[in-house]
């Protein structure tokens, strides 16, 4: 009797797990199916003809998608450069120097993420329009960098405070200048955390839709905007392929984040 | 001339702060001023009156959707994190652990495109149910309305909340939980009565962050549910792109600020009540 109850429970748990897997993977499977469906209409449950015609169309060197991919990657790279250029000094100051009102500054970097962003972006777009920089890569990079700054500053601060102070003191004792100590001891030791924050900012920029939607249109078409236009135009194949391209880095990051961000750095984020 | 450490610190942090000031604080004050300025200038609530007349239904709709999404996200996360912590079947725990994190970093716009196809009348979900014989083809309905938005939000946010919750549960003192089990409490009871009360702060932080995120997402309501009623984010974009009506759009924006402030205050109040109690 006990054995029956226990195997019933296991069966129920397995059933729930299967239902969960269906809900989790079903939408992704549907996306993958659309990307190779050349013709798919009701009442057919699966695509009528399969093929890679749309993949060829998307990956044609002159196609919109390749141009958008280029724009997206270029914007993401510039965003990482801007964000790191601002957050390495800021993170060092927050982690190592006597900074008045430190907690206040930490919260200030968090604020852009803590507010519903659409209302902010429409006003950024208005200001940029008056300045005449709306629809430029520069404007989109600024918006993405401000959005990603909380991650890069907080993670950089955590990475710097995880560096052993004794190592810096040892370098100073044998005669290294403060600047030399920073560049040959502190920065290299904090580098893994800072690289992780750079990857984070890169992904955030690659995936960003709302800010680009208001600030970048109509000249700057990143991959998320291409996806949106294709989906709203009813071209499910191109939309699905674009979505798959965006999926790859996100899933890779999910699988490998623990290697980039060591636990001792992670424990200090936001502290 | 040498500068003090304080001055150096401020100098190093200044460029980052300048970016936040220019791209967040300045537009924020811009939006507040624009929302409270009347058509003839001067302080007025005209924009809010207009926003209420046109979009009061969408305000309610937004609140209901976001609250429902947070509720379901919380429940799903509790079930997942609870199973990961207290589950005894190693095979089930392992499979769940490998599965549940997948949507964590998937962009909202990709999730929206997935759900747009999956939940459609002829989407893979209905088709699978028909193929399994659970449903007649004529019974198939499209879920691309408020239900689709809630489903997308829950699908996307559950891994995040479950990850934080599972981390908090793993850090709990196992001895208390084992003691509960030894005294004959079921695993469900141990989870609800012993474990959850201790990790409530972490669960609330994760849900408040999800609440604000859901209020900020434009792509999901636009792509998953095209028609009226819709969420305030879509209304704001519409006021700007179709009419250039910044006053009403910013009034709606202030409403979203207040909603997220409300969520933050509930959280802070709880935290303070707790501190007062101990």
List the topology elements.
The complex is a heterodimer of chains A (271) and B (278).
Chain A: H1 2-35, E1 37-39, E2 49-50, H2 53-59, H3 64-96, H4 102-114, H5 118-131, H6 137-161, H7 165-173, H8 178-207, H9 210-215, H10 223-232, H11 236-260, H12 263-266
Chain B: H1 5-35, H2 46-86, H3 90-99, H4 108-118, H5 124-131, H6 146-170, H7 174-182, H8 187-216, H9 219-224, H10 232-243, H11 246-277
Helix pairs in contact in B: 1-11, 2-6, 2-8, 2-11, 4-6, 6-8, 7-8, 8-11, 10-11
Describe the structure.
The complex is a heterodimer of chains A (271) and B (278). With 271 residues, chain A is an all-alpha fold. Chain A is 77% helix and 2% strand. Chain A has twelve helices and two strands. Chain A has helices at residues 2-35, 53-59, 64-96, 102-114, 118-131, 137-161, 165-173, 178-207, 210-215, 223-232, 236-260, 263-266; strands spanning 37-39, 49-50. In chain A, strands 1-2 form a two-stranded antiparallel ribbon. In chain A, helix 3 (64-96) runs antiparallel to helix 8. The mean pLDDT of chain A is 86. Chain B has 278 residues and is an all-alpha fold. In chain B, 77% of the residues lie in helices and 0% in strands. Chain B has eleven helices and no strands. In chain B, helix 2 (46-86) runs antiparallel to helix 8, helix 2 crosses helix 11 (246-277) and helix 7 (174-182) packs across helix 8 (187-216). The model of chain B has no long low-confidence stretch (mean pLDDT 87). Classes of the chains: A mainly alpha (271), B mainly alpha (278). Chains A and B meet through helix 1, helix 3, helix 4, helix 5 and helix 6 of A and helix 1, helix 3, helix 4, helix 5 and helix 8 of B.
